[in-house]
Amino acid sequence: MMPEIKKYSNISSFKSANKLLGIEISSEKEDLICYSFDSSGFKGVLPTAVAWPRNTNEVVNLVKYANENNLQIIPRGAGTGTTGASIPLAKEAIVISFEKMRKLLEIDTANLNVIVEPGIINGRLQREIQSFRLFYPPDPASLDICTIGGNIATNAGGPKALKYGVTRDYVMEIEAVLADGNVVRAGGKTYKKTVGYDLKDLFIGSEGTLGIFTKIRLRLLHLPADSTTLLATFTNLEASGTAVSKIVASNIIPSAIELMDKSSIEAVENYKPIGLPSNVEALLIIELDGNADSIKNDAEIIVDICNSCSGDISVAEDISERNKVWEARRSISPALFYIKPTKISEDIVVPRNKISTMLAQLRELSEKSGIQIVSFGHAGDGNIHVNILIDKKNHEEYIKGHEIVRKVFEATIRLGGSISGEHGIGITKAPYIDMEIKERELELMKGIKNLYDPKGILNPGKIFKAS
């Protein structure tokens, strides 16, 4: 039962509430600073406090306290998001960090699912279930530091989305705390369930604006029997996009097709030399999994396709070579900071047969503006990570960089694409949301938000453009 709490108007009185709530809470300045920004590079407002709950009841108590005292609630995983979705925008806020709720609660090997707390690290979950020969496919580049709760909040993807789908495809059931402190459960233990509206899917990708996850049931797969990694290089950027379209149009579904352009290759080699070829315009990392015979047959077809697009292709000979290739792919983001101190990171998606067109337009934008644009990403599903490299201390560069963002989004929409594939909207993309979502649809979305959170205390200012 939630104890009776008075309304507190200052930090010192809020500290006394800590003892009453029995929850680990801090209002020390160094903690407030640490939780006022995320990987977007944007700094929010220092909140009233940061809290580290350890179970659902403590989250309930925090939310009820915030609701009664008109404090905003900012749920936070590991802060790896790139759109500012987990930063406070007002002082009257509590950041709820899930660092202390990271347990793997149950592994159901008979029904192929697990129950986890939202703060569990994606990579740790994957390692834990491997001993059972089980597999959780969604694997963002930040898998060793990002949390499952954060992944669900943005519907994260990763390289394996081409074959296996995104986070949404693996969420079976969630437990969430609503803005009034009530706990709801949506979904279930079964793979089929068509009773009423699917409330679970509303929460996925909602960026903490509808409720706060406290337990999650995830679907698992059996670990593939075998896998192999191919490396295809191209002296023409558009040819790499054509190869992707041809592979996807064939009767083959690789587990991943990742693209790196010349700039991203050079960035990685300067940051952490791995031995990637330097005399190419683009490379594709193509992974196949399944049984050995099917992998061999599929690899032969892919070699023919890449050769027809003037590509050279090689096979990673062993696990060490395969790990080096994937290490290169996962090293791109940190490597870019060695080129410019600021990167504007976008994650557009275009239809797969438009990848070549989009890559050409990105190169043209870079050449015309004089601003370096580095492109890489999940080419197999059309998801391109566009990185605009600037120095935010250079006012002219900063303005020009954000002008390029709009032009990138305009080109994406013209090609029938989307302005976000897996990063969400947060605050950085909110000004552009009406480029893709029209007025009536936005009204429906805001109506859902108002129904779930009538006082507007759950992660306010995220997703929707400020009016």
Q: So how many helices?
A: 15
CATH topology of the largest domain: Uridine Diphospho-n-acetylenolpyruvylglucosamine Reductase, domain 3
- Uncertain spans, ≥5 residues at pLDDT below 50? 1-11
How many domain regions?
4
* Number of distinct beta strands: 18
Share in β-strands: 15-25%
Tell me the helix content. Answer: 25-40%
Mean pLDDT: 92
| Oligomerization category of the chains in this entry | single chain
Query: Which structural class is indicated by helix and strand composition?
Result: alpha+beta
Question: Care to give the gist of this entry?
Answer:
The protein has helices spanning 11-21, 29-34, 56-68, 122-130, 148-154, 161-164, 199-203, 237-249, 262-271, 292-308, 319-330, 332-336, 355-369, 395-414, 439-452; strands at residues 25-26, 49-51, 72-76, 93-97, 104-108, 113-116, 134-135, 171-177, 183-187, 212-219, 221-222, 226-234, 256-261, 282-290, 311-315, 342-349, 373-378, 383-390. By secondary structure, the protein is an alpha+beta fold. The chain folds into four domains: 11-97, Uridine Diphospho-n-acetylenolpyruvylglucosamine Reductase, domain 2; 104-222, Uridine Diphospho-n-acetylenolpyruvylglucosamine Reductase, domain 3, CATH 3.30.465.10; 225-332, Alpha-Beta Plaits (2-Layer Sandwich); 340-426, 2-Layer Sandwich (Alpha-Beta Plaits), CATH 3.30.70.
